[in-house]
Amino acid sequence: QGQLVESGGDSVQAGGSLKLSCAASGYTYSIYCRAWFRQAPGKEREGVATLDGDGATTYGDSVKGRFTISKDNANNILYLQMNSLKPEDTGTYYCAASHKYCSGGDLDEYNYWGQGTQVTVSS
């Protein structure tokens, strides 16, 4: 089966941009939903964005208009482009994939998880 590995996390100043990657290693199949989550220190994990098999996207209210989720089908890499970063975007970002249709932020519905990549936004 496949494995997800995030990369691209870094420390940036407020207003800056960052692009996260989630690469699939090994063999994966029948993935119909991919997503990004994040978790700030002392807070619960929250949904950031989802991308379904038809290309439809959803975003958390706090990142709408600033973040974009996309996928490189040829290389099987999921991306999260983050612009106009704010200090409150700081946290560990995780990618996830599911064999089910995208239906929100139920963590139990995701079959695969990455180990996370740290994003720190300073003011």
List the helices and strands and how they pair.
Blueprint: E1 3-7, E2 11-13, E3 18-25, E4 33-39, E5 46-52, E6 57-59, E7 67-72, E8 77-82, E9 91-98, E10 112-113, E11 117-122
Keywords, please?
7-stranded mixed sheet, single chain, 4-stranded antiparallel sheet, mainly beta, 11 strands, 123 residues, 50% strand
Structural features, described:
There is one protein chain. The protein is an all-beta fold. It is about 0% helix and about 50% strand. The protein has no helices and eleven strands. It has strands spanning about 5, 10-15, 20-25, 35-40, 45-50, 55-60, 65-70, 75-80, 90-100, 110-115, 115-120. The strands form two sheets. Strands 2, 4, 5, 6, 9, 10 and 11 form a seven-stranded mixed beta sheet that branches. The chain has a four-stranded antiparallel beta sheet with strand order 1-3-8-7, with no helix packed on it. Strand 7 and strand 8 (about 75-80) form a beta hairpin. It is globular, with a radius of gyration of 13 Å. The relative contact order is 0.32.
Short recap of the structure:
The chain has 123 residues and is an all-beta fold. The chain is built from no helices and 11 strands.
- Enumerate the spans where pLDDT stays under 50 for 5 or more consecutive residues: none
**General shape:** globular
Order of helices and strands: EEEEEEEEEEE
Major pleated sheet: 7 strands, mixed
Question: Rounded to an integer, what's the Rg over CA atoms?
Answer: 13 Å
| Count of strand segments | 11
State which percent range the strand residues make up: over 45%
Mean pLDDT: 93
Helix content: under 10%
How many helices in DSSP terms? 0
Helix/strand class: mainly beta
Ends apart, CA distance between termini: 41 Å
